[in-house]
Amino acid sequence: MGRWKEIERIPAPALTPVYGPLAGMRVLMTGSIVAAPFAASMLAEFGAEVIHVERPNVGDPYREQAPIVKRNDRKISAAWIQEARNKLSLTLEINLKIPESKEIFLSIIKNCDVWLENMVWTEKLGITEEMLLEVNPKLVIAHISGFGRPQFGGVPEQCNRPSYDPIGQAEGGYMFVNGFPEPMPPSHAATFINDYMTAMFAVNGILMAYHHAQKTGKGQAIDVTQIESMSKVLNDTFVQYFELGRVRQRNGNKVAIFQPGNLFKTKDEKYLYIGAYGAAVYGRFIKALGLDLDKYSHETCGNSIEAINSELGLELNQKAIDWVAARDAEEALQYLLSQKVPSGIVRTSADLATNEHYQKRGNFIEYTDETLGEKVKAFGFAPKLSVTPAQVWRGAPTLGQDTDNILSKLLGYSASEIAAFREKNVI
């Protein structure tokens, strides 16, 4: 054993097409639902060669997340179709107490720029940062967890806690400020917003550390947590507490510090959001509603907590409610936009699927899903780059689809060696 000591590093991309700004980066991802896979997806869409490790004969549970898309005798998760495209699937039992697993894992580490994981208890598998950085001194190690790694600080018992998206929303402070005031309970976001925010912070950290490694030859570890990712996007919530002694409260759909900033029901039973921050935009809103700006001044009615909750401020809010309620959503929207008042209708996925702007932005793309063996339609890319755009070169892989290719082309194993690994259930 110790193959990783002898093998030569093969530059990326070796197994994927060349495209995007991240061509040349190779990422090993050992993780599941949702933050680590989405971070890897973002890197893969912009050109990184991403190897997703899954347990042999088991696979990533993400493949089975409801709802399921079925085509005859084939089925796969709708989420997998969207998030696993462009990845290579390698089946490997990650337990470095198994000599063959250790040899394969460290050989891949030597050939990677980034190791991205959200398994949390990596030491129990025999994996340490010191070991990996000895094998590959330029390696960027990205840890994603609910509460963080002890070496970055914190209470050890807290670092060991298991976590999922709503737990991150709750423990990170977001859930308390989301929803309507008491007696209504706090509310969590309907999608896995905490996981997606955590993934974006992970991508940001990976790119910064990768840039540093390319300049200096020195890798490092990144600690990304669900709770801190959530707390980081709470705007001035903590400054309010530390400097004003104020605990931010829930306000439903109404912005607490200026108006208009609220969701209004329309004549045709839809919902229109109107937001007008600042004196100039506020003035356009007052003019659009045919109101007297001297009476409903920005200072009196719109620019502070006290103003919007004053008698005149509450009167203005009611006038806005009544104005919108007397109009259909599109009518109200187009008029307000003509007056340069920021507004938006609450859209469903069905609305957006046929939306002209979305269509002309190229937001929906088609590609062949490897499990279904048929074309699927999914959301495309964000952000959009003018010179090195993202692309889908392949749909989400089947379980272990790339195992033999990775072991032979990247690590130099023979067909007989690969067969022996498979017989031992290592791959």
From TrEMBL:
It holds the Pfam family CoA_transf_3. Keywords: Transferase. The keyword Transferase applies. One of its GO terms (molecular function) is transferase activity. InterPro entries: CoA-transferase_III, CoA-Trfase_fam_III, CoA-Trfase_III_dom3_sf, CoA-Trfase_III_dom_1_sf. Belongs to the CoA-transferase III family. This is Crotonobetainyl-CoA:carnitine CoA-transferase CaiB.
